[in-house]
Write a structure and sequence with these properties.
Blueprint lengths: L14 H12 L7 H25 L11 H15 L13 E3 L8 H5 L5 E6 L3 E6 L2 E6 L4 H14 L9 H12 L9 H11 L5
Parallel strand pairs: 1-2
Antiparallel strand pairs: 2-3, 3-4
Helix pairs in contact: 1-2, 1-5, 2-3, 2-5, 6-7
């Protein structure tokens, strides 16, 4: 990650300005509108959801999804993505940064348990998703905006100049390369992620 030097004042940010910070950090050319880079990232993720699932199934790490919607498939993928991209670094403590609300679960139970200033993604079956900073809501998304929520969630780590938790390091690093075309992979998982990217290319041809 590159240090943006920015101070976080949540009311000043929306999803486009958060993702735009990734573009600035990576030195990509400025788009005509703030929404353009975000939309390109969302399209990249959307067109690769099926490919990622096929890749996970071929590796024996995912089961076929039971839903046909892109959002449903993306949720299925996120639930198993750490099986596809396992961290080989020693994990002292697993940090839970992605959570799916179950039918009988209080909506704010996981949110209120979160500590520190670590981004989190909270996905609800019928009410969209939220990006959290600690236990505070940073960005909110409607039911059909899960793709946008995932892109913004990754971008929030750039905004904070923060590494991914160790147990999410390989999977999030793979997604950052896929979605943002960012090849600055953490050295602890660089070789594994590059190997996975090479394998995944067979599913995109």
């Amino acid at each position: 990650m590159r240090n943006s030097g920015m101070q976080i004042h949540p009311p000043a940010f929306n999803v486009h300005t958060v993702v735009e910070e990734v573009r600035r950090n990576l030195g990509f050319h400025e788009e005509k509108t703030p929404e353009a880079f975000m939309n390109n990232c969302v399209k990249t993720l959307e067109k690769n959801v099926d490919n990622l699932i096929y890749y996970g199934i071929s590796m024996g790490d995912l089961q076929p999804p039971r839903c046909s919607s892109v959002d449903g498939k993306l949720c299925h993928l996120l639930k198993g993505i750490n099986l596809m991209f396992k961290s080989k670094s020693r994990i002292k403590q697993k940090v839970d940064i992605v959570h799916f609300i179950e039918d009988d679960e209080e909506p704010d139970k996981w949110q209120q348990k979160r500590q520190a200033f670590v981004p989190g993604l909270l996905v609800m079956k019928s009410n969209g998703a939220m990006v959290l900073l600690g236990n505070e809501i940073f960005l909110s998304f409607n039911e059909k905006e899960i793709l946008r929520a995932v892109v913004a969630f990754l971008a929030t780590f750039y905004l904070l100049d923060m590494d991914y938790p160790t147990n999410w390091l390989a999977s999030m690093s793979f997604l950052q390369q896929l979605i943002f075309k960012d090849n600055q992979i953490h050295p602890d998982c660089d070789a594994d992620v590059k190997k996975a990217i090479k394998q995944f290319e067979c599913f995109t041809e």
